[in-house]
Amino acid sequence: MSTSTETIEQFVNREYQYGFVTDIETDMAPRGLSEDTVRLISSKKGEPDFLLEWRLKAYRYWLTMKEPVWPNVYYPKIDYQNIIYYSAPKQKTDGPKSLDEVDPKLIETYKKLGIPLREQARLAGVAVDAVFDSVSVATTFKGKLGEMGIIFCSFSEAVKEHPELIKKYLGSVVPYTDNYFAALNSAVYSDGSFCYIPKGVKCPMELSTYFRINSADTGQFERTLIVAEEGSSVSYLEGCTAPRRDTNQLHAAVVEIVAMDRADVKYSTVQNWYPGDEMGRGGIYNFVTKRGLCKGVSSKISWTQVETGSAITWKYPSVILKGDNSVGEFYSVALTTNYQQADTGTKMVHIGKNTRSTIISKGISAGRGQNSYRGQVKVMRSAEGSRNFSQCDSLLLGDKCGAHTFPYIEVKNTSSTVEHEASTSKIGEDQIFYCRQRGLSTQDAINMIVNGYCKEVFRQLPMEFAVEAQKLLGVSLEGSVG
Amino acid sequence: MLEIKNLHAQVEGKKILKGLNLTIQPGEVHAIMGPNGSGKSTLAQVLAGRDAYDVTEGKVIYNGLDLLDMEPEERARAGVFLAFQYPVEIPGVNSTYFLKAAFNEVRKHRGEAELDAIDFLNLVKEKMKVLELPQSLLNRPVNEGFSGGEKKRNEIFQMAVLDPKLAILDETDSGLDIDALRLVAEGVNKLKRPDNAQLIITHYQRLLDYIVPDFVHVLYDGRIIKTGEKRLALDLEERGYDWLLAEYRSQTTETPSGLVGAR
What we know:
The complex is a heterodimer of chains A (482) and B (263).
Chain A: H1 4-9, E1 26-28, H2 35-44, H3 49-63, E2 87-89, H4 104-112, E3 126-132, E4 135-139, H5 142-147, E5 151-154, H6 155-161, H7 163-169, H8 180-188, E6 191-197, E7 206-212, E8 222-228, E9 233-241, E10 248-251, E11 254-259, E12 264-271, E13 283-294, E14 300-307, E15 312-315, E16 318-321, E17 327-336, E18 341-350, E19 356-365, E20 370-379, E21 387-396, E22 402-411, E23 417-426, H9 429-437, H10 442-453, H11 455-458, H12 463-477
Parallel strand pairs in A: 3-7, 6-8, 7-9, 8-11, 9-12, 10-13, 11-13, 12-14, 13-15, 13-16, 14-17, 15-18, 16-18, 17-19, 18-20, 19-21, 20-22, 21-23
Antiparallel strand pairs in A: 1-2, 3-4, 5-6
Chain B: E1 2-11, E2 14-24, E3 29-33, H1 40-48, E4 53-62, E5 65-66, H2 72-77, E6 80-83, E7 90-94, H3 95-109, H4 117-131, H5 136-139, E8 141-142, H6 148-162, E9 166-170, H7 178-191, E10 197-201, E11 215-220, E12 223-228, H8 230-239, H9 242-251
Parallel strand pairs in B: 3-10, 3-11, 6-9, 9-10
Antiparallel strand pairs in B: 1-2, 1-4, 4-5, 7-8, 11-12
């Protein structure tokens, strides 16, 4: 009889299936960071002066800051002068006017990733903005959305076409002073997605941005800005992959969401950056600031994230509940295996009356992965009658991994209710054996048990992506136990 | 169907089974009884392929296959079913989904086409009727929040759906009140056919009021020390195990190493 541990170990050496590199000519900035780099990026984008000024202020502020050391993650010091801050596929024209002008190699790349850019081969009902290294290469369904007044385009395009909106909202939720990586991003961000839903409009399809890092030694710094006007609603999805490389790459993004009265924004992430190999070499450092502002009454912002990739994940999608009766939600599945580290969670800041927040976090640690949940619930004096419910579960697979929970709770009034539940469990040999005795393979058993554990979160994802997330978790779990 | 020859097994270095012999033919119902610590559950676990149990000697031939050489899931697919003494909870995994996955693994193994969700649901509903089970069971996660009786009945339900050749019931009667016991036993009886066999492991004879075995074996100190017909179970109920153990000790020169209940 073989032992189950052996059987499980047979699944080691999983393959990261998105690890290929696209051989394409690129236009790159020289290595290193200075005011000149910031100016170069801004001029390449042909930005208005107010943006350059903003970038420079952010850069100067960043110089005065120190990299945070409080996250429960460990990595060698990042040499910010050895990073390439701008890389774009070379284009003959100013920018592709239609998909026919996009390099076929790029279209092929996205096809390989399962993201068809040609609308006729579209993912049912999903509009995609594809970001390749530092720039957006294509956005689908722009016309159809435009008829409804919805703006969905690359950030650069938004700067050109709708500077007033950018000026009004850029940095309004995450100011460049917010934190080290947000300041860095504000100085050097190169592209991203912009989305504007006008008053009363329910966006008829999923909007999605697909981020791809291709070039070596580049950092990816993109910004996403979503503005949902009164009574509007939108569901947004973000996906990410990168080639397999021995060196670490930095991804420092910023996502800002503004929800006005009764607006409803759902933001889902399936993060699958290259996680490094089984020895912990390479992988993406995913240092991201995501924050939503429930500005209007009865507005709602919901974050759902499935984090399976990256060597290190450091992010806390948060909601500031300013409008009375506004709702914030955070649903998270974070998986760490091999040598991956994750310090992730959320912040819910209750300011308005009767605001409600829900936090469901499911951490899964396998291999030598280290998984930390860090969450803050802050209830201000003004937030009378507000409620929070938090549930943080950790699942351990094997005995070399770790799970940590750091909840911070601060309540400044007496009419609010805050609940926190936490649990840590090991995936049981009993459970696996039970499944095998019914005819399931060990891998199928583990997938089934883990998916059951994550069900509350997957339920929040749009249908197609829930299926994708389950598969992704399955692939990521292969060989993670032992 | 099943031939166990001189089976020796240990767990964490402790010898539990010490030369067990047992032959089961199709259509037969065998009951294994014995005091606590005699090795009853170990036998069930070894037959199902639990890792923690090391087989040090002996052979188990199941329908011409070397059972001990097979992975647990291969045994299951080949028709060996274990009704667990303590059915395991799998939170968040829908019972129907779980059972359909298991069912289709068995079908695949048999070279049959997998059933789709609708056909499977029809099959399941039919089996539920036979076992008089509430359909709400199907919508709940596997064993999660089930009462002791529900868990045991769910095991028998899974058995009904998976239709095994050899069903091993490990103390299925433990923790059941008399009504639940009757329901479980009736279910098992309904599943009996000339081409399948049942191995019923029990501590008490009361289950055997409802399930009539063809053979009763008494397991003690890792060996079967007595085999008889149903009458034997009644004798044990009346007189306990001591007379049998005394008889056994006087017959053997070797002193059994374990005391009753001392494991």
